[in-house]
UniProtKB/TrEMBL annotation:
Molecular functions per Gene Ontology: oxidoreductase activity, acting on the CH-OH group of donors, NAD or NADP as acceptor
Family note: Belongs to the short-chain dehydrogenases/reductases (SDR) family.
Alphabetized Pfam families for the sequence: adh_short
Matches recorded under InterPro entries: NAD(P)-bd_dom_sf (IPR036291), Sc_DH/Rdtase_CS (IPR020904), SDR_fam (IPR002347)
Native source organism of the sequence: Amycolatopsis vancoresmycina DSM 44592
Protein's UniProt name: Short-chain dehydrogenase/reductase
Annotated Gene3D superfamilies: NAD(P)-binding Rossmann-like Domain
Source superkingdom: Bacteria
Keywords carried by this UniProt record: Oxidoreductase
């Protein structure tokens, strides 16, 4: 059994990952802002025979993320896996000048990831082991219209995670999972009508969130001397 912390656990890929890992016998520590959804998820996990803790979490707050990791270690004696999943995707054209939305993506998708690394890495180094998993996107590999800023944050997430892999001491494993079009609430944050319409067409074929959870489970389930560094998971119809 591993102690697995998951940010953005209240919906989408985070929720599916929590359910999958709990079914596989791991203890999951659920972090997100929507406490009511976390409580319902924890109950679902407990009712199915799994174990979970709930913590209200804002990944844009460095101290909050540090406390999230510290509380898990205090309660369970260790932190084995940190899944940095929290993300937002309010797509828009650059000439729409949705600066507040750009800032929000940078705060959650980039600063939130850095806060997770800062929170988890000291515990991993003391234990001389651990596994950091970043949920990036196929947007970390390509740029499409309306997604310049979002893709920029995901390119950054991929680069930061690769830097962590290169710098981390032996025993600390690092994985980037890049989902293609996946069922989630991310598209619900798009306010620009043109981007909304483009996303409806783009999301005509989607993966279930559990497909991405399966990739996370695969990576963390490998023997300690096997480091799965990067996984890209797309619907077969996505190009």
């Amino acid at each position: 059994m591993k102690i697995v912390l998951i940010t953005g656990a209240s919906s989408g890929i985070g929720r599916a990952t929590a359910l999958r890992l709990a079914r596989e016998g791991h203890h999951v520590v659920l972090g997100a802002r929507r406490e009511d959804r976390l409580a319902a998820l924890a109950k679902e996990i407990h009712d199915a025979g799994g174990t979970a803790d709930v913590h209200r979490l804002d990944v844009t707050d460095h101290a909050d993320v540090a406390a999230f990791a510290d509380a898990a270690v205090e309660a369970h004696g260790r932190l084995d896996v940190f899944v940095a999943n929290a993300g937002v995707m309010p797509l828009s054209r650059l000439d729409s000048l949705h600066v507040d939305e750009w800032d929000r993506m940078i705060d959650v998708n980039v600063r939130g990831l850095l806060h997770g690394i800062a929170a988890a890495l000291p515990h991993f180094r003391r234990a001389r082991g651990g596994h950091f998993v970043t949920i990036a996107s196929t947007g970390a590999h390509e740029v499409v219209p309306t997604a310049a800023v979002y893709c920029g944050t995901k390119y950054a997430a991929r680069a930061i995670t690769e830097g962590l892999r290169l710098e981390a001491e032996p025993g600390i494993r690092v994985t980037t999972v890049s989902p293609g079009v996946t069922e989630s609430e991310l598209a619900d944050t798009i306010t620009e009508p043109g981007a909304q319409e483009a996303m409806r067409a783009y999301r005509a074929v989607t993966l279930p969130a559990d497909a991405i959870a399966g990739a996370v489970a695969y990576a963390i389930g490998q023997p300690a001397d096997v480091d799965v560094n990067e996984v890209v998971v797309r619907p077969t119809a996505q190009r």
